[in-house]
Design a protein that fits this description.
The chain is of the alpha+beta class and about 190 residues long.
Length: about 190
């Protein structure tokens, strides 16, 4: 009789701190020392703070070791963290990845309106980047948003694209939705 394979488990850790390189180094080293693997990570700077999110995989013992080390690391390196046990993402072979790009004069309602549009059309959000900046020509505050979304199987793409463009026109947004493409073609 053979031993059943060890079931891989996941831990999602979000960290907020002032030193992005230190945060990344400390947490990736802690994962390595705990025999965990970093399966995905994102780091963004927000003023003087940085936000780091890691998805880590490993067996139960390795993840427990990492979880027990985090309070000491957080105190030593002055960061705040939150962690949640998770599972692998569901496989959705018939879903279609798309990217929506939006540019507009900043209004506080734009992001929530974009999310509501996609919720109303059963579209899932995979990734979001949203930044504001001062337009050099006018000094007005501008917003750029990039939303990576997943269209459910059976979505009539041309209909959804028309709906999205009509929605953007109604809100006076410069917008585009197109198929997601890898950054570096294989």
């Amino acid at each position: 009789m053979s031993t059943p394979p060890v079931r891989e488990q996941f831990l999602v850790i979000s960290v907020l701190g002032a030193k992005p390189m230190v945060l990344t180094n400390v947490l990736s080293r802690a994962c390595l020392e705990s025999r965990c693997a970093v399966t995905s990570t994102r780091l963004t700077r927000h003023g003087e703070l940085s936000a780091l999110v890691l998805q880590v995989s490993g067996n139960w013992d390795a993840l427990a070791r990492l979880e027990s080390n985090l309070p000491v690391l957080a105190k030593r390196h002055a960061f705040q963290y939150n962690m949640v046990r998770g599972s692998a993402a569901d496989v959705r072979p018939n879903a279609l990845p798309y990217v929506a790009y939006v540019s507009a004069a900043y209004r506080p309602d734009i992001l929530s309106e974009l999310c509501q549009f996609f919720i109303d059309h059963n579209v899932e959000l995979e990734n979001l980047t949203c930044d504001t900046y001062q337009a050099p020509q006018t000094g007005g505050t501008m917003l750029n948003a990039t939303l990576t979304v997943t269209l459910p199987p059976g979505t009539q793409i041309s209909w959804l694209r028309d709906q999205f463009l009509d929605f953007a026109d109604a809100l006076n947004l410069d917008a585009l939705i197109e198929p997601w493409r890898p950054q570096s073609p294989a």
